[in-house]
Amino acid sequence: DTAIESSALAIDRILQNANIPAGVKKGVNINTDNSVTFVLEAPNKNDVFLIGDFNNWELQEAFQLNRAISNQDLFWITVPDLDPDVEYGYQYFVDFSVKVADPYSEKILDPWTDQYIKTGNYPNLKSYPDGLTTGYVSTFKINEPVYNWVVSDFAKPSQDNLIIYELLIRDFTESDSFTEAITHLDYLQSLGINAIELMPINEFEGADSWGYNPALYMALDKSYGTKNDFKAFVDACHERGIAVLADVVFNHSYGQSPLVQMYWDSANNKPAADNPWYNTDHNFVANTDAHWGSDFNHESPYTVTFFNEVLEYWMTEYKIDGFRFDFTKGFSNTIHTSSDPWGGNYDAKRIEILKNYADVVWDHSPSNKPYVIFEHLADNSEETELANYGILLWGNMNHSYSQNTMGFSSESDISWISYKARGWNNPNVVGYMESHDEERLMYKNLQFGNSNSTYSVKDLTTALSREETAGMFFFTIPGPKMIWQFGELGYDFSINTCDNGTTVSNDCRLSRKPIKWDYVNDVNRRQIYNTWATMIAFKKQYPEVFNTSNFTLNVGSLTKSIVLKNTNFDVVIIGNFDVSAKSVTANFTKTGTWFEYFTGEENTVSNTTQSITLNPGEYKLYT
Question: Which of 192, 185, 162 shows the shortest CA–CA distance to 536?
Fold first, then answer.
């Protein structure tokens, strides 16, 4: 830093305006003659210098960027005669005040946390230029290792029939790696998964994270592996008919973002008033719980253009099949006061912004549309409009399903998982019993489950069996569904379990969790997997039945029934979530012989309304 400041005094500050080369994009552009053109967008800045390995990290007049004549926001420079087999590190030095990584970096070196990457996950990682600079350093290599795709034209599964598996690489694999995750794909394929939703994998701050503290948007976080490791993961998924979705956090970012650093009000510790990408203050004025890092301004054309480019990059570079957008309620500049602290009320400007992002994703491949999923959780009038536009929306049913598995009748109605109950035209609710953000059902069963003198949900075997019943009234309701990792094995560690695997504390929400692949060998846990796999197979093999629009739900109490009608065959499902035997009314659609799938028993129906007694936790599926 001292050397940079000293050399800055000797620089003759002459800004050159010059025609930017045709066809270049923001970031690094590799030319055919082993030269590289760097392009930085920096509105209202005057002096931008390139520093890096190619000039010994020194401030030199020859490395001052030109301002583009056609677009005064863009600065550019072409550096000739670079070694194609050398990985170069670089930064931009802006207005003699701040050194930043390239906002369009595809890889960065982190002086604070690279040392914590697990051995083997990123072999031959370039060393950080200690003593020469500070902060994130961007890198590039002209002859980057090429990945040869096996599947170049993956046909995405039907949106209506998605079975999504949400996972965090860190807590799904012992090695924190895409490479190890590939070894578990056959297990997921056998379960029936046809889409994996990865918690954020772009570069985040810190060494160990859920990923919702993003720093850079085109750089893959190195803690999980190399670019080609991730491409191999996507390819292996596609070979098994599994789509890959990336969780993206466009609501906010933190202090290591170069877009923040270039325009920062240090006196007030917030984005400067002239920041093209961020709001100076958060729009959730009455709710500090919704204040994460710096707040993006999605009404700025700079922000919209940037994120459109981010979306296009991931779909092009990594063949990503779609996105889950985090906290989309934050995507407008509407001020949310104490009357609407979480921004749930209808917001027309937000609707317009969100539809535009969806259009960008869909336009990438109109005939094989990528998926657009929002974590919106707003007023149903707004969600209805988005759903009817074709967008999928997270449907958080954690509380209602846990009330059922625990055996409590209050708030046990699960009808809201149905798009019909919401008044939507299309089955665009991504219903889930668990996600990364909710307490685990099995933990609640064992800690708080209901009981009587002969039956206790707190008994492990009993609690596990009730997860089977939950699946019967989850996968069979028409529309896409999502499972949180290991839910199919009755994962019973709290969301607040600490790194030691035993202590539970609210301070440990983001901590590492025990990775329980040994649960696969537990016959009672495996029974959940088998039952859920059966229901998923039904859903995928008979979509005309299990995604029919002609269905009836009677799911408002602990005794539940579902009727699915189709010209091929009808299905009647009944179940008892109570802790004592109950009589359940089965409304058969016609007289004659019905077969219970799991036991093979025949039921001769002479009266279509039939009362059947079920033991606690028992279920039946008739066709």
Answer: 192
Tokens representing 366 are 């109109």
DSSP string, 135-166: S-EEEEETTPPP---S-SSPPPPPGGG-EEEE
Q: pTM value?
A: 0.97
Write down the pLDDT at residue 396: 98
Q: What one-character DSSP code corresponds to residue 448? A: H
93 alpha-carbon distance from chain centroid? 33
- Give pLDDT, residue 176: 97
Contact status, residue 318 vs residue 231, Cβ threshold 8 Å: yes
Q: Exposed, middle or buried, 568 (CB in 10 Å: 0-12/13-18/19+)? A: exposed
Largest CA distance in the chain: 97
* Token pair 């329980």: residue: 516
* 342-384 pLDDT per residue, tens: 999 999 999 999 999 999 999 999 999 999 999 999 999 999 9
DSSP secondary-structure letter at 345? S
Cα–Cα distance between 458 and 359 in angstroms, integer? 48
| Contact between residue 428 and residue 392 where contact means Cβ atoms under 8 Å apart | yes
66, β-bridge pairs:
76
Q: Is residue 201 within 8 Å of residue 211, measured between CB atoms?
A: yes
CA proximity to 604, closest of 590, 621, 596, 592: 592
3-state DSSP assignment of residue 232 = helix
DSSP state of 598: T
**Would you state the pLDDT for residue 101?**
98
3-class SS string, 174-206: CCCCHHHHHCCHHHHHHHCCCEEEECCCECECC
Is 192 a residue whose pLDDT tops 80? yes
Q: What is the rounded average pLDDT of the residues 429-433? A: 98
Q: Which residues pair with 244 in a beta bridge?
A: 196
Would the pLDDT of 312 be above 80?
yes
Tokens coding 516 = 């329980």
Centroid of chain to Cα 287 = 24
pLDDT value of position 11: 65
Q: What is the pLDDT of residues 248-290, one digit of tens each?
A: 999 999 999 999 999 999 999 999 999 999 999 999 999 999 9
**CA angle at 335 for the pair 334 and 336, rounded to the nearest 5°:** 110
For residues 344 and 358, what is the distance between their CA atoms, to the nearest angstrom? 20
**Contacts (Cβ under 8 Å, ≥6 apart) of 6:** none
Residue appearing with tokens 């299905």 = 571
Rounded Cα distance between 227 and 230, Å, is 5
What is residue 2's predicted lDDT score, i.e. its pLDDT?
Answer: 54
- Other Cβ atoms less than 10 A from the Cβ of 425: the count is 12
Taking Cα atoms as reference points, which of 456, 502, 477, 468 lies closest to residue 562? 477
User: Please, are residues 603 and 578 in contact by the beta-carbon 8 Å criterion?
Assistant: no
DSSP letter, residue 13: -
What's the pLDDT at 15?
A: 80
pLDDT tens per residue across span 136-158: 999 999 999 999 999 999 999 99
Measured distance CA(113)–CA(137) in Å, rounded: 13
Tokens of 305: 């253009």
Q: How far is CA 355 from CA 279, 365, 509, in A?
A: 21, 16, 33
The two tokens of residue 622 are 């008739």
